[in-house]
Amino acid sequence: MGIEYTIYTEIYVKDKWYNMDSYVLTPSGKYVLAPLLDGKSFVCRFLDNMGNAGMIEFTNLSESTQNYLLARAKDNGYDQSLTEKFEVYDFFTMIKPKYVREYQYEYYAPRYEVAAFEIGENDEIEGWLTQESYDELSSEEKKEYVFFKWNDRFDWYDTLSRVIAKVEMRLDDYKSEVSWREEGFYEHLYGTTIPIRLIVETH
Q: What is the pTM of this model?
């Protein structure tokens, strides 16, 4: 069945880690935690490109993440292991620097491949050419290609792009909602760069 990965987001404010993930209000009126990322193979490919992770135990997670995992375990009829280990990645030193440009690929691609990609028939584009290879084509052959920028769907760079956008959105929401509700948080949240880490649970 394969390993499933769930990634949580934590922020360090006033000498303490806090969970920074969003809660979604369901139609039945329940609030459900929405992790940063959850999946199998595409999450694995993403993590494989992020470098060597650190390891922390359950008791070193933020209190809010611990409480969520304990409550989830209780709801599902099992005991949460207090010695379970989790991979941890620093967002600003290990994740964000990998994002060097908006698109991983910027090449000349066959028009039919681009069309299929744009309507969702294909998750990747094949048969693309570099500028040098494109220049070697005849005028008639060049008509079959178009310059295109893209990220293969579900490839690690596409996932990286989405992870960064989601973390930055979570940070903006956290700042706007927490800074004025919690005493002394404003100065920390709008001061220097705030440490953020990604916690990886495997199951």
A: 0.89
